C-alpha cells in the first residue's frame, strides 16, 4: 500500500508496520479481532468525514449459493449421512471434525480426536463427518484409522460454499482454531474448538459465546501468538499436547446439553 501511493493507510502500529502507516493505532489488549478491525474501519471513515457511525454489533453469516447447496445435498446423500449409524433411526445427529489448521502449532493429535468422537458418537448416537483440505489428507487418514466407528470423509472434495452447506446439517462441529469452525459458526452451528498458541479472546466465535465451547491449553504460555512455527514430525506442540481428551469430552458433553439439539440460528 505504501509503494502504491495509497494516501490513507490505517493500521496498528507494530515495529514492522508503523513506518508505512499514515494513521497508526496502538493494538488494544483483550479485545476480539472483529473489534480491532471495526476500530480501524471507524478511523478510516472518520478521515473521510463519516463521524456519526452508530456502530452495531455485527452478525457474521455466510450464505451458500444454490449450486453449493445442491452439491452439499448430493454429498450428504452419497455418504449416507442420513442413515450412518447402524440400527438407528433415519437422520441421526452428525458430528463434523475438521482436524487441520493453518499452523501446525494449532493441530491436536488425531488419535485424541478419535477418542473424543468415539465417546460422543456412542453417547449421542451420532455419525461422523471428517472435513479438510487436500493437504490435510494424511491427518484425516490417521484419524480414520484410530476411530472405532465408520466415518464419511470429504477431505479435499469441497469448496467453501459446499463445506458450509454440509456443516449446516451437522449437530456439532469440532476442531482446533481454524477456518472451518468459523464457517460453522457463521452457519449457525455449535462448535467446540481447541486453543493453544492462538488467543480465544481474539479469535473465538464473535458474539455467540453461549453456543460455542473453548478448550484452552492449561500451560502458562497459552495464547502466545506464535503461529509461524515449523512442523514437528510425528508429534504435537507441547501446548496442544497438554490438552487432554477427557477435558475435550467433558466440554463436548456440556455443549451438547447446553445447545439442546438446536442450532444457534434455529435452523
The largest sheet has its strands arranged as: 5-4-3-6-7-8
Query: How far apart, in Å, are the first and last alpha carbons?
Result: 42 Å
Classify the fold: give the CATH topology of the largest domain.
Answer: Rossmann fold
Average pLDDT, to the nearest integer? 89
Level of helix content?
25-40%
Instruction: Give the helix/strand class.
Output: alpha/beta
What is the highest CATH level, the class of the largest domain?
Answer: Alpha Beta
User: What is the number of helices?
Assistant: 9
String of helices and strands: EEHHEHEHEHEHEHEHH
What general outline do the C-alpha atoms trace? globular
Low-confidence stretches: none
Second-tier CATH architecture of the largest domain: 3-Layer(aba) Sandwich
Strand content: 5-15%
Describe what you observe in this structure.
- The protein is an alpha/beta fold and 267 residues long.
- The protein has two domains: 1-58, no CATH class; 66-259, Glycogen Phosphorylase B (Rossmann fold).
- It is 35% helix and 12% strand.
- It has helices at residues 33-47, 66-78, 110-124, 137-146, 160-168, 179-186, 200-203, 238-241, 245-259; strands spanning 10-12, 23-25, 94-97, 127-130, 152-153, 172-176, 191-195, 212-216.
- The protein has a six-stranded parallel beta sheet with strand order 5-4-3-6-7-8, sandwiched between helices.
- Helix 6 links the parallel strand 6 (172-176) and strand 7.
- It is globular and about 60 Å long.
Amino acid at each position: 500500500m505504501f509503494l502504491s501511493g495509497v494516501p490513507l493507510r490505517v493500521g496498528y502500529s507494530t515495529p514492522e508496520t508503523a513506518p508505512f502507516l499514515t494513521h497508526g493505532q496502538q493494538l488494544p489488549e483483550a479485545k476480539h479481532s472483529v473489534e480491532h478491525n471495526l476500530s480501524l474501519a471507524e478511523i478510516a471513515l472518520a478521515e473521510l468525514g463519516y463521524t456519526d457511525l452508530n456502530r452495531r454489533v455485527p452478525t457474521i453469516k455466510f450464505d451458500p449459493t444454490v449450486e453449493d447447496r445442491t452439491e452439499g445435498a448430493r454429498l450428504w446423500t452419497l455418504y449416507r449421512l442420513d442413515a450412518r449409524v447402524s440400527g438407528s433411526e433415519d437422520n441421526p445427529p452428525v458430528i463434523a471434525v475438521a482436524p487441520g489448521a493453518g499452523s501446525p502449532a494449532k493441530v491436536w493429535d488425531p488419535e485424541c480426536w478419535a477418542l473424543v468422537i468415539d465417546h460422543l458418537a456412542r453417547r449421542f448416537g451420532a455419525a461422523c463427518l471428517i472435513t479438510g483440505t487436500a493437504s490435510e489428507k494424511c491427518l484425516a487418514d490417521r484419524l480414520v484409522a484410530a476411530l472405532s466407528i465408520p466415518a464419511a470423509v470429504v477431505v479435499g472434495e469441497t469448496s467453501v460454499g459446499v463445506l458450509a452447506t454440509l456443516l449446516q446439517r451437522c449437530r456439532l462441529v469440532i476442531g482446533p482454531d481454524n477456518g472451518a469452525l468459523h464457517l460453522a459458526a457463521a452457519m449457525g452451528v455449535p462448535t467446540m474448538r481447541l486453543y493453544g498458541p492462538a488467543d480465544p479472546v481474539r479469535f473465538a466465535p464473535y458474539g455467540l459465546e453461549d453456543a460455542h465451547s473453548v478448550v484452552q491449553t492449561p500451560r502458562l504460555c497459552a495464547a502466545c501468538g506464535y503461529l509461524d512455527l515449523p512442523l514437528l514430525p510425528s508429534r504435537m506442540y507441547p501446548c496442544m499436547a497438554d490438552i487432554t481428551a477427557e477435558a475435550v469430552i467433558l466440554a463436548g458433553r456440556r455443549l451438547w446439553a447446553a445447545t439442546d439439539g438446536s442450532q444457534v440460528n434455529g435452523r
